[in-house]
Amino acid sequence: MSEIFIKLSIDQKKCISAEGCLTCVKVCPVAIFKPAANKTRIEVNKANEDECTLCNLCLEQCPVQAITLQKLY
Ligand code: SF4
Ligand code: SF4
Predict the structure, then answer these.
(1) Phi and psi, residue 26, nearest 5°
(2) Is residue 4 predicted with pLDDT exceeding 80?
(3) Mutation test of ligand 2: which of 13, 14, 23 has the most ligand atoms closer than 8 Å to its C-beta?
(4) DSSP code of 12?
(5) From the CA of 52, how far away is ligand 1's center (Å)?
(6) Which CATH number does 6-71 carry?
(7) Quick check: CB of 8 below 6 Å from ligand 2?
(8) Pairwise CA distance, residues 13 & 4, whole Å
(9) What share of the chain has pLDDT > 70, as a percent?
């Protein structure tokens, strides 16, 4: 089992996925973001969270700065 060294979160109050934004889903090279089962919001795919390459693309491209990347080491 791999350890998780980072924690990603989406501020659902800021996120505009309800307006059709899928930017983080598209830019993340390791599929950390995914639409929730009911498609009303974007979720962090916890199973992939430790695959994050720290590329910062999601942070740079989210139009409303809804994503937080916390380093735990
Ligand atoms: S920093 Fe890069 S790899 Fe990590 S969640 Fe954002 S887009 Fe994905
Ligand atoms: S890029 Fe930002 S606003 Fe767009 S779906 Fe992802 S978290 Fe929400």
Answers:
(1) -75, -40
(2) no
(3) 23
(4) T
(5) 5
(6) 3.30.70.20
(7) no
(8) 25
(9) 95
